[in-house]
Amino acid sequence: MRNVVIIGSGCAGNTAAIYSARANLKPLVVQGHESGGQLSMTTLVENFPGFPEGIQGPDLVGNMKKQAENFGAEFVHGSLLEADLSRRPFRLNIEEEWVEARTLIVASGASARWIGLPSEQKLIGHGVSSCATCDGFFYRGRKIMVIGGGDSAMEEANFLSRFGSEVTLVHRREQFRASKIMLDRARSNPKIKFLTNTVVHEIHDPAENLVTAVTLHNIATRETWRQDVDGFFVAIGHIPNTSVFRGQIDTDADGYILSKGGAKTNIPGVFHAGDVQDRTYRQAITASGAGCMAAIEAERFLEAEGH
Length: 307
Ligand SMILES: Cc1cc2nc3c(=O)[nH]c(=O)nc-3n(C[C@H](O)[C@H](O)[C@H](O)COP(=O)(O)OP(=O)(O)OC[C@H]3O[C@@H](n4cnc5c(N)ncnc54)[C@H](O)[C@@H]3O)c2cc1C
Fold this sequence. Notes:
Blueprint lengths: L1 E6 L3 H12 L5 E3 L13 E2 L9 E2 H14 L3 E3 L3 E5 L5 E5 L2 E10 L3 E3 L5 H5 L5 E2 L2 H4 L7 E5 L3 H10 L5 E5 L9 H8 L4 E4 L2 E7 L8 E6 L5 E5 L2 E4 L3 E3 L29 E3 L11 H21 L3
Parallel strand pairs: 1-2, 1-8, 2-5, 8-19, 10-17, 11-12, 11-17, 12-13
Antiparallel strand pairs: 3-4, 6-7, 7-8, 9-18, 14-15, 15-16
The structure holds flavin-adenine dinucleotide.
């Protein structure tokens, strides 16, 4: 029987692990398919407080893990495959091994949707990004491309226009899903150029480990061309990792956990932390803060029950 099981080993899960381990609760952290979470995919992180020169993403989450282990947190490989949250203790299928838990912290994140090119995957953190707030600063005076046609693509393009010499927004359709106000704002921004009916065929150049250009294709005119680019931002949405809790933890229509205040979900004893609930900020520091909140709430919940 575990006091606390934490699902996910990103900033939220690892911070929850530090707090609950220091509260002597010996948490079990299920690391998932992506040990270290999204930051394990990136390079330099310049906006996490406490590192004036910045810190490499994998080092930041690696340090958090070490810190948690120093206080007695246990990390296991693999994923949560199934969960029965209908009664307590909760029953969790972790890689076909059933574990019982008095409390559960869900810190399973929200994965960015990518366009799906192998070159894109190779260049994440080397010019390909899914987060303008995180990486825009690296592209001051450079050529930036944003992929997408929704509100978040418009917001990212507007934000990135503060940094780039030019921003090209590429959308595969003629019509945009974005709201009129967001679209109008982007359209009236002199730095943003629109390319509609256009898809990305290739991102160059994985051999150089750097984004240098893209090959674009206009599906209406069938024209194909190469365009120089330094920063390639994909803004086509995120997928919250909540399918394993479907029908048990309340979510919104997109699958983000609905908070019942603080770190509470609709199920007493189940807490949320990080991007799995947060569709607004999606930052390492906010995920860590949420992990801290969830751990404190789990500890108080256990305390109130006399554990
Ligand atoms: C390329 C890139 C660069 C970024 N740069 C910055 C930056 O510079 N600064 C910044 O503040 N933010 C940055 N971010 C955003 C930041 O990484 C996220 O906001 C943060 O990682 C969210 O933390 P999290 O713990 O909530 O989720 P995640 O980091 O997404 O972690 C989720 C964890 O849950 C696990 N998981 C999922 N499903 C299961 C399951 N069924 N069972 C067990 N485990 C599961 C995954 O394996 C993973 O370990 C960047 C993101 C990306 C993609």
